[in-house]
Amino acid sequence: MLTIEATGLGKRYQRNWIFRGLTHPFRPGTATALLGPNGAGKSTLLNTLAGQLLPTEGTVAYTLAGRPVPPDALPPHLAYAAPYLELPDELTLRELLRFHTHFKPLQAGISVEKLLGLLYLERAAGQLVREFSSGMKQRLKLGLALFAAAPLLLLDEPTTNLDATGVAWFREQVRSNRTGRTLLISSNVPAEYDFCDAQLLVTDLQPAPR
Length: 210
Description:
There is one protein chain. This protein is of the alpha/beta class. The protein has a single domain, classed as P-loop containing nucleotide triphosphate hydrolases (Rossmann fold). 27% of the residues lie in helices and 28% in strands. A hairpin with a 2-residue loop joins strand 1 and strand 2.
């Protein structure tokens, strides 16, 4: 159970504020959508909340089971999926899953072989990842995050490159794997976030130009 507490959080590049003045708790068992048009700063906000980017002002505090977690100790507790993240595509799918899960374990009861079935990629187990379609790669990225034993789940534009069947798969799996987790979704596609408990519009966090 991991809680994120943002207090007066802001991020600026040069003179331009991407967002500013965010004070908000993100609690276990909740799903929050970070919304806004393309280029508004959704991914920047997501990465700042994840501790991947340093804020310009304000703080982000993490608490796991009631104990503080320093930002540099957060990565083992988070799972992240985004279409721009690269996969080691010189490996076969089975090799990649074994390599990845050595560092980021799967949830209890899920083996590499079971994960292949959950991803509907059994027939591709011996195939090089570089040969996958964009949709197969996106499903793989999502699966590595959704089925990880991590209390913080971060999804950036999760249905990118997925067809209608893939979107339905995503919605089913995220419903099945969000219990007790802190879930943040960066999106501007309703099918990706319409089940969320709360919404934050990035443009509401941007100061008016002077």
